[in-house]
């Protein structure tokens, strides 16, 4: 396992265990339009041997109007079961850059009752650059039954999020880039206002890693501290649509902060409504 985080594994650890029974590898890559990358196409061209592809859009709640909404435990169980993933497996998830969309899959598995789930530190881009094994062959899948044990306490919905903003009972850490947070850059989704929730602090997901590798614990603490986040208080993580908010969750759990929840609707829900307050600028308490 990686030395600093109990939730990541390094490439050597994974490569030594390729093909072992009970080990499931999941490509959970997902990209913004600005990345100009197609996750499924890249998986088909090359992936870690034995990896299955988890479509972040397809696994979402099919009845929600919002993107990437957490599915019901039943829907999630059916979906990952068709991929041959068991709740008893040791699951390693990865994405291309290393610390972008994979934590979302990590978070979903954890709140569905799987705790032997880890993120590949460095991601597939570094894996391939180092000349480690890859394949274009489709992974053989034996569908199974996935038993989900949903922990709803780790998710926060819109009504409670409105209370958080009004009463400041929890801090808000927003993983979007500085421009989108400050309102100086447009949102990628039509009809969504720019800016952030009142009281939110900006902790860009890119600040949590270097070259695809999660920062050491002391540096992670510094990132949150410089953003004005008090690690002794409750925190709600947010982002554009719930994907990179999970990266903040993983970082918080890594440094021992367990009193956190993820706002699943995130900015697409909040900024897409006409009855929610929006602020612009760098946010309260942030060091610039």
From TrEMBL:
It is found in: Cytoplasm. The keyword DNA damage does not apply. Its EC number is 2.8.1.2. It comes from the Bacteria. Residues 176-197 are annotated as: Disordered. Gene3D superfamilies: Rhodanese-like domain. The keyword Transferase applies. It catalyses: 2-oxo-3-sulfanylpropanoate + [thioredoxin]-dithiol = [thioredoxin]-disulfide + hydrogen sulfide + pyruvate + H(+). Residues 19-136, 166-279 form the Rhodanese domain. GO terms for cellular component: cytoplasm. SMART domains: RHOD. Keywords: Cytoplasm, Pyruvate, Repeat, Transferase. SUPFAM superfamilies: Rhodanese/Cell cycle control phosphatase. Transmembrane segments: none annotated. It is an enzyme of class 2 (transferase). One of its GO terms (molecular function) is thiosulfate-cyanide sulfurtransferase activity. This is 3-mercaptopyruvate sulfurtransferase. It comes from Aquamicrobium defluvii.
């Amino acid at each position: 396992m990686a030395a600093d985080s109990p939730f990541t594994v390094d490439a050597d650890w994974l490569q030594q265990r390729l093909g072992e029974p009970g080990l499931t590898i999941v490509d959970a890559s997902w990209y913004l339009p600005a990345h100009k990358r197609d996750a499924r196409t890249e998986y088909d061209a090359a992936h870690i041997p034995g990896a299955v592809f988890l479509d972040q859009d397809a696994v979402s709640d099919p009845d929600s109007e919002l993107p990437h909404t957490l599915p019901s435990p039943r829907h999630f169980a059916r979906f990952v079961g068709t991929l041959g993933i068991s709740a008893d497996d040791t699951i390693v998830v990865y994405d291309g850059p290393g610390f972008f969309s994979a934590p979302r899959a990590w978070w979903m598995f954890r709140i569905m009752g799987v705790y032997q789930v880890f993120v590949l530190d460095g991601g597939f881009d570094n894996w391939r650059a180092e000349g480690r094994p890859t394949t274009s062959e489709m992974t053989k899948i034996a569908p199974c039954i996935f038993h989900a044990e949903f922990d709803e306490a780790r998710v926060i919905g819109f009504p409670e999020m409105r209370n958080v903003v009004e009463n400041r009972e929890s801090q808000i850490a927003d993983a979007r880039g500085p421009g989108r947070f400050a309102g100086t850059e447009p949102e990628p989704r039509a009809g969504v206002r720019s800016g952030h929730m009142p009281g939110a602090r900006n902790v860009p997901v890119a600040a949590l890693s270097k070259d695809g590798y999660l920062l050491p614990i002391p540096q992670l603490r510094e990132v949150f501290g410089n953003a004005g986040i008090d690690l002794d208080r409750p925190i709600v993580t947010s982002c554009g649509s719930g994907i990179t908010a999970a990266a903040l969750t993983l970082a918080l759990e890594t440094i021992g902060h367990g009193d956190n929840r993820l706002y699943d609707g995130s900015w697409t829900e909040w900024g897409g409504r006409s009855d929610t307050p929006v602020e612009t600028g760098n946010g309260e308490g942030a060091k610039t």
